[in-house]
Amino acid sequence: MGALMLMMMMMMATAMAKLCDGAVYKVGDTAGWTTIGNVDYKQWSATKTFQLGDTILFQYSAQFHNVMHVTHAEFRACNTTSPKATYTTGNDSITLTNRGHHYFFCGVPGHCQAGQKVDINVLRKPVSAQTPSPSAVPTPGIQGPSPNNGHLPRALKGSFAKLGLLTVVLAVCC
């Protein structure tokens, strides 16, 4: 494999690895996780598009709040009796590893009822899968067949096959 091709593959792998890193969302943005200021966590989450690998960050005063990961039924009822997990550090990072709804609320009495609860929905269908197929997207500036009738030189075919494998691996990652 030529040095140029190796360098191109390394650059693509680096770029794609950055794409595979999830986003970090601070719950409540600048307000954080609180009952002060009437933060609308339902509205906050509705403006985000959560993906697998994203991290949600709960920042709060551990003296006054906590975070409980709960079921949908517990979320609706603000039931604190059997959470899936409870976080109490005041700086809790939770990576989203499965699709669907993830329900969280503050377990301090009265806080959930006051609106300190959030439904994080990781889309079942990744955003990238919703883009149109390449055949449906017009490519400006390309008219007619290439001068070599669409055939690649043998040396390039092997290199492009390796890039294809890299693309498949990176697509699975993201």
Our estimate of the beta-strand percent is 15-25%
User: What is the name of the CATH class of the domain at 18-122?
Assistant: Mainly Beta
Helical content band: 25-40%
Query: Could you say what the CATH topology of the domain at 18-122 is called?
Result: Immunoglobulin-like
Number of helices: 4
Indicate the low-confidence ranges by residue numbers. 13-19, 129-157, 159-163, 165-174
Number of strands: 7
Q: What is the rounded Rg?
A: 23 Å
What is the distance, rounded to the nearest whole angstrom, between the alpha carbons of the first and last residues? 26 Å
The chain-level mean pLDDT equals 77
CATH architectural grouping of the domain at 18-122: Sandwich
Could you please describe the fold and organization of this structure?
It is built from four helices and seven strands; from the N terminus they run H-E-H-E-E-H-E-E-E-E-H. The longest helix is centred in the C-terminal third of the chain and has 20 residues, at 154-173. It has a domain at 18-122: Cupredoxins -  blue copper proteins (Immunoglobulin-like, Sandwich). Helix 2 (41-46) links the parallel strand 1 (24-26) and strand 2 (55-59). Helices cover 29% and strands 18% of the residues. The strands form two sheets. The chain has a four-stranded antiparallel sheet. The chain is of the alpha+beta class. Helix 1 (3-20) runs parallel beside helix 4 (154-173).
